[in-house]
Amino acid sequence: MTCEASPIGPQPPPAAGVMLHLSRDPRRPFASNVVLLVDEAGDAVAEIPSLPVRVLAALLDNGCQSLALVEESGPRLSVGIHLAAPF
Predict the structure, then answer these.
(1) How far is CA 49 from the centre of its chain?
(2) Which of 4, 5, 10, 58 is the most exposed, having the fewest neighbouring CB atoms within 10 Å of its CB?
């Protein structure tokens, strides 16, 4: 699954090829339309818009393992989402 994400904050967007993790926003645990892309340091670097997020949020809430690979960088990121069943 490929989708677009909006970079967060003043830092430059992650480069193409960077591996990120999908995470629910701990500040908004009940917001069904919020999924963050988090770097290896644990910093939220982008947010996936609400259209594909509801399904992703439900999968994450139920223990689905996930990774996001930045395919294109810029003002809008293109990320490939990879999902695996919970262990």
Answers:
(1) 9
(2) 10
What is the overall mean pLDDT for the chain?
84
Quote the number of domains for the chain.
Answer: 1
Q: Dump pLDDT digits (tens) for 27-41.
A: 776 766 778 999 999
Report the CATH number at residue 53.
3.30.70.2330
Amino acid at 64: C
Q: Which whole-number Å values give the CA distances from 66 to 10, 12, 75, in the listed order?
A: 26, 23, 23
Residue 13 contacts residue 73 (beta carbons within 8 Å): yes
**H helical segments located in 1-87:** 50-61
Residue 65 belongs to domain spanning? 2-84
Residue pair 16/70 in contact by the 8 Å Cβ criterion: yes
Residue 3's closest CA among 62, 46, 64?
46
Three-class DSSP category at 84? strand
